[in-house]
Amino acid sequence: MWSFSCACVIFSGGAEDERRRMPLQADNMRERGRQIVEGPRKPKEKPQSDVGIEIVKRMAKLKPASDVPVQMSQLRAEFSDMGKEEFDAAMKRLSEEGRIFLLQHDYPSSLPEDDRNKLVRIDDDYFVAATRRDAPGTYLGFGPAGAFQSLFNRPKKPKTTPDRPIADAFGHAAMKVDPESIRKETLKQLTEALARGKAGSLPFARATYWAEKLGSKRIAGAFGRRQKAFIDKASGLVQEIASQSAAMDNAKRGSAEWEKARRRIERARVKLSNHLSKAVEYTHPAEYVSKGYRASILSALHIPEMNLIYQAWQFPLHEAQKAIDFLVPAKVFKKWGIPYDKPPADIRTWAPAMAREVKAILSGVGSAFGDIKDMMVYGVTETQLAGEMAEQIEKKRRRSKEPEKITCGTDKYELGHRPRLLPGLDQTIMAIGRVQGAADVTFYNIVFATALAAEADATARKIARDNPGLGLSKDDVKALARDLAHEPSPAMVAAAADEANRFKLDYPTWAHDLVQKIREPERVKRGGPHFEAVWKAAVDFVVTFSKIPSAAVDTALFRYSPAGIVRVGSRLAKSRREMKESVRQGKPPKMQSDAYARDTAELYRQSLVGTAAWITLYAFGSLGYLGFTGGGDDDDRQDIGAAREVLGERYNPEVVVGDTALDLQRLGPVGQAAAVGARVSAAGKPRYDKETQDYESNLTRLDRRASTAARAVILGAPLGRGAEEVIHALDSSSIGSGVGKFAAGKAR
User: Fold this and answer.
1) pTM summary value
2) Are 469 and 424 in contact (CB under 8 A)?
């Protein structure tokens, strides 16, 4: 997705000193940026006749229909006085300008040399024919629909701009892949896999060991060739990344060759990551049983469906909280040690911001199709790799004394992610995980794209606002924002990935951290690898999932709610204390990280949106305009279920407006919290006991409320709906009996 060369821009003479004394000298900066990208300006030459126009005219004369290919041999005959190199260069220029479309020959090596010379050659590709592209503004349709044709014929604006070095000089250089680091990382993982020998890191490692031990050299040789092919493929993918990186260095930035090389690098990275993930040891039996157990729960096909629906209802709230960024008290945050920079509020920018958001959403949807395929086939996506690499670069920057010079990164290849013990079952467990991952791709990419577009626009506007001497016009700022979104900096990618991860509930919470401390204590490791694996499996057996469910609860109850405002206040107080402590020790005032500041600002916005939604629901409910149902609680009294069925009450809590009932889950995190409240409220109503001829005790009601609250929290997350045994265990009138049923079911 990004630029992948490790070339660094070096300013000559005293420019390095100028760069440190921000802002830069505006008069020379833009001209220097253009010279870096385009080279020194050449003196104007005497204008010559445009050969390209004549070629397009001859093509129209030979084939009046624009979609009918014109053979190169036929077109070359029209320009017999033109040399082959000149003709090929003209065709290449027309293709880059978007005036013609070249049709590539699939197998040029099968042709004799004389026939190949009759084709147009561009680099190593041969083209056999060409078609004309329709000029913008021509109408291919007829009737009322033809009036909209011009909207689709508009020429696309370039994604790159000569002003990009300005952003680079201000610390927003594009994220780049270091081919040498990729090579070293791959070599490191292959060496580690080879060192494990019969443990089975490389494919067929254990089979090779036993074949050699049993004296079957022929079979051992066959398995050895398989391992060699595995290493050769990894080496070939590394060489592909290096060669395409060199091709990008030699191509003009933004050209078709440059974009093609960048795309090939992305594909090679995805394939290499998937290929090296196959080098895995055999999974410990206890850990394997744990993975299989979790996969059996996730195998319920309604879980990814509900997860997608949940994200669809959550997305409007996500967009709403982003729209009120102007309400964040950035000055107060900065004064208390949380450096959050927001663009100034300007109503004139709202319409362009909405248009930018829509384009980013469409871009995210478009990229999701390829990423869903990659997730299903390779188990990893380009967007995911970009976020991981940006996070690695940001970690290096925080430890470096010169962070602005670190823009190159590499992918990390870790062994042990794949289950490996029983062929067939391994692939089943892995496929279930990939289906769950594919369900998150669509909205993850949408949120990632919108966050990236917002970051790019804010960065471009800030550069223009803080440096008026640069003389950047509105069009220049828009072009710079497009370039930054097309080739973002590591910080921008990390920020977008953080926001997308929080949206899909992939972030740690105190409950998840507590489970991890119980799962991996230091004392357990002293018992040896077998005892450690059994202990982890036992914890996973009881607490099957912790990260995403706890994040769902945190989002609904402690972010999109008044509790979020309290959390923001506690963060400000904590940051204030740390600032005062650092000043007392004679150090500079301690400022929180940018990621912490972004999360605090997002928490503030979410709390405002959630509080407003809560107040609205409470107000309309108090006035009698809204009613809430408790859903299918644990009321097992006679005829209660039949009565609810007659009334048309569903299992999930609903909000009733007049004669219309709406599932509370459709209100996103706010609806999830409201559903918990509705279930607990319904469970807390006093019930009449026919046996005792009296109402039940308050202790019984309290116990039922507690068990209902626990079950409601689990049911609120899509993942919890698949854990049927947990829900049934908590679906009782007593917590003690529920835990007993849960333990008994596990024992069976």
Assistant:
1) 0.76
2) no
